[in-house]
Amino acid sequence: MARKPGSKDLAENRRARFDYDILETYEAGLELLGQEVKSAKGGRLQLAGSYVVIRPALRRGLRRGEGGEAWLLNSQIPAYQPKNMREDYDPGRSRRLLLHSGEIRTLRGKLNEKGLSLLPLRAYSKHGIIKVELGLGRSRKAHDKREAIKKREAKREMKNRPE
What we know:
This protein is of the alpha+beta class. The chain is 27% helix and 33% strand.
């Protein structure tokens, strides 16, 4: 994927692109603690095996079916300085994603479709702010994965072939 100007990649979830056909992508902010930001910018953020869920909002005053919050689950951000971190710090805690309410409503409707999942594809720093690229994807079958491997190997052979 092409890098955007002013952004620095922090982590990538390569397995998501192999296991899923990505239909759409979204950009979301990531709500972190101070030391988590330092740790993530140091390249210690891990997205492998993580996924996104949309839960009802905890705020009062919202009508039924309105709003909601997106949460990133199973991502790992170890402590920046383990000796200075709180004792109850959990590196695998759930982290809230910052999306517009219209995007959350759209995603909630699409996730109700059978076979669609919302996955983090990569994390990057954009103008000092940590962002996550989310992909709405459909799971690939085993034969599709084998086909992708064959295409990748054929492309590699063509590139390395002497002329």
